[in-house]
Amino acid sequence: MKQALLIASFGTTHRDAEELDLNPVIDALRDAHPDAAVRAAFTSRMVIRAIEKQTGRKVDNEREAAARLRKEGFSEDEIRIQPLHLIEGVEYEKLTRIHDEILVGEALFSREADLYAFAEYATKSYTTPTLFIGHGSEHEADAIYRRLHECMAEAGGMHGVATVEGELGRAHALQWLKSSGADSVHLVPLLLVAGDHAKNDIFGDDDSYKTFLEGKGYRVSYRERGLGCDAFVREMFLKKCRALMEDKAGAR
């Protein structure tokens, strides 16, 4: 059976983040499925509008991309959508509403095993106190960040999780740091791409996590790249996409 693979991410207006963090994931998925028609789309209408206004470049949203595939001759049951979202929140749910017969794969952190695997990877990869900072959400899926924070502790590392929005804000981050006894912290964007939120809300020079923690007396370093540049994270997405394309359990 012929297949089409639609790779859907939130998107970014930062071209460097797209090239360094997003495109490596898309390229890895495309290379893993050479017989499929592979397309990409952004789910954020705000990002799409900003890109078109700034550059004139038109990026398809998830519905437009799916419609193009149907015009190319693919039926709904031949189209698969692999999300590049971290949690199955508001943006993810846009994908599940396109059509009942279009299978949608899992977000990065959809299972308990995903959280443990990432926590173990983080523990091995970072040897100093590290705070992974995600976007956060008003959606119930925001609870995933709390569970990942707990998994970090269970993995035996010196790491924690906080968010720009949602439950695990700056007060949570400060409490975690105080309880750790650390006097310095390394910030890592828990985001697929290091775009606007990373550059402004995490390590920006004006009212960011970096300036907040420095103001509390901590020495702060940070990573400037998103998760998409990590081979481990790309492999997590590859496994989910393989299951999706093979119609195995896990596809929505």
Which SSEs are present, and which pair or pack?
Layout: E1 4-9, H1 15-32, E2 37-42, H2 45-55, H3 62-71, E3 79-83, H4 90-96, E4 103-104, H5 112-125, E5 130-134, H6 143-154, E6 159-163, H7 170-180, E7 184-189, H8 196-202, H9 209-215, E8 219-222, H10 231-245
Parallel strand pairs: 1-2, 1-3, 3-4, 5-6, 5-7, 7-8
Report what the structure shows.
The mean pLDDT is about 95. The two termini are about 20 Å apart. Strands 2-1-3-4 form a 4-stranded parallel beta sheet, sandwiched between helices. A 4-stranded parallel beta sheet has the order 6-5-7-8. The chain has 10 helices and 8 strands. The protein is α/β, with parallel strands linked by helices and about 250 residues long.
In short:
The protein has 252 residues and is an alpha/beta fold. Helix content is 44%, strand content 15%.
> How far is it from the N-terminal to the C-terminal residue, by CA?
19 Å
CATH topology of the largest domain: Rossmann fold
Please state the structural category: alpha/beta
Radius of gyration: 18 Å
Q: What does the main sheet amount to?
A: 4 strands, parallel
Order of helices and strands: EHEHHEHEHEHEHEHHEH
Task: Indicate the CATH architecture of the largest domain.
Answer: 3-Layer(aba) Sandwich
Order of strands across the biggest sheet? Answer: 2-1-3-4
State mean pLDDT (0 to 100 scale).
Answer: 96
Say how many strands there are: 8
Q: Report the top-level CATH class of the largest domain.
A: Alpha Beta
Low-confidence stretches: none
Identify the quaternary structure here: single chain
- β content, as a range? 15-25%
